[in-house]
Write a structure and sequence with these properties.
Blueprint: E1 3-9, H1 18-35, E2 40-46, E3 50-56, H2 60-70, E4 76-79
Antiparallel strand pairs: 1-3, 1-4, 2-3
Amino acid sequence: MPKYVIEREIPGAGSMSEAELQDVARKSVEVLKQLGPEIQWLHSYVTGDKVYCVYLAPNEAIIREHAKRGGFPANRISAVRALMDPSTAE
């Protein structure tokens, strides 16, 4: 299944409390359950004013639907074309 990185602009994201992050995660999981098994949230990176999420999904449309139902932005959705890490240099 295709992998995507979703950039979400959320001012102050890096200052959110553990409870606030948990609430956002719960809402995301709730919407994922509604959409079914074809979309999966792998993990997210929280930075100062952005959250970068990694998802498996058949297409961008279902990712946009997840964002719409969850009430969070999906400012940029990028399909992952390749994975690179230190072992790539070998």
